[in-house]
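Question (not urgent): is this output format expected?
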Amino acid sequence: MAAKKNSIARRWILNSLGIILLIVITLIAALSFVVQAYVYNGIQSALNGRSGELTNFFSPDERDSASDFIKAARGYVEDFPNKESMELMVINQAGNVVTTSIGFAPDRSQPMPDYQKALEDSGSYGTWTGKLVTGEQAMAVTRVVRSSAGIPVGAIRYVVSLEDANRQIFTIVAALFLAGALILLFVFVSSHYFIRSILTPIRRIGATAKLIAQGDFKARIEKMNNDELGELCDTINDMADELGQNERMKNDFISSVSHELRTPLTAIKGWAETLQGGETDPKTLHRGMGIIVSETERLSGMVEELLDFSRMQSGRMTLTMDKIDILAELDAAVYMFSERARNEHKYLIYDEPSMLPPVLGDINRLRQVFVNILDNALKYTAEGGTINVTAAEDSGFISVVIADNGCGIPAKDLPNVKKKFYKANQTVRGSGIGLALADEIMTLHSGSLQIDSHENVGTVVTIRIPTFQYLEGNTREAVQKTDEGRNSKPNA
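Got this back:
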């Protein structure tokens, strides 16, 4: 499995497999030590058992005389039943080996640390494990036989070769290493498969994400599994859908704005060329100048709306808050559209309340919200249609409701109409940012803008804004709670 530097596969190999390798080696080493200790302890237990027989074998008379001990010891060696598995040595009082169970002359150059330990030990017992002068690994146990006066009269030494035991231990350790290697191989193969099952979708996701970043919003990732990677695929596909929709809305927005700007510019240019020709009668001159001024104001309004939208996008939209009469601003906005409604043969009905409490707001921005909503209502209401405007105060909020019986908004478009650039009806003039701008303005006023609509039935827009008294009361209550919290703290 090729692993690039700083890749997931490389980190997995170095971290996970490295830790597993360390654990396996540690376990094998520990098990090897346990196996060796178990085998050696078994051999030593056997030697200890045999050497423990000496207490009952030699009579008191044979213990008091060195010569009697040697004679009895020779008989013990000759009758010893386990000569094939261990070697016996008879050591005299001087510490020399006088006879062995194998029948060969003893090697006097071989040191006997166990014999020296047995002489010094209160229990007359000594053991040693090491290499003989021949290089053979062996274990020896020596029992010193003492007289009734406690004087050593000789010793019996039991020696066992550890070569067969070491071969058995090596076989077991080799089997452990083989098992460890098989475990590591299994972990490596399973990890390789697991890493590939992760890296392959990630590479595919990365390649598709690059296509999306380059503007191919139709690129999609095939979902293979219902896991975290599957959720990531769904998220990226949803992101591509959203980006594609935003791209389409942006292009539609640019097209709409270009068209909206070109229409008044065409009218201004046409009338300017007409008036430039001279010899124009006063009536035509007055009409042309009126259209130029009107279209210029329309252009100025569109540019200002675009600037407001830019400020909203960058978070730089600021409000000049003051205590204002919202009823007066609503009256002005309705009056502004009354003439247009009559000219378009539509009915603008305003149920004016006698009085509304003041609000804290930006007079120009609130007027802009009313103008945008009324403009939309007239645009999407057919000739002979009706737009009803009502206002009332309820529970500290003023609700302005603008309802029409126009074409309405399709259910699939309703959740998106307050999004930037979104236009549900591309056949009607407009940039598609009016509702987004109005919604942002109401949010900045601690209010809301709610739209309810049914296709071919009509639309109801509800604008809610808190009254000045309500805001003032909440601010006073918040300050009072803060002061109470400070006063409730214990004095230092």
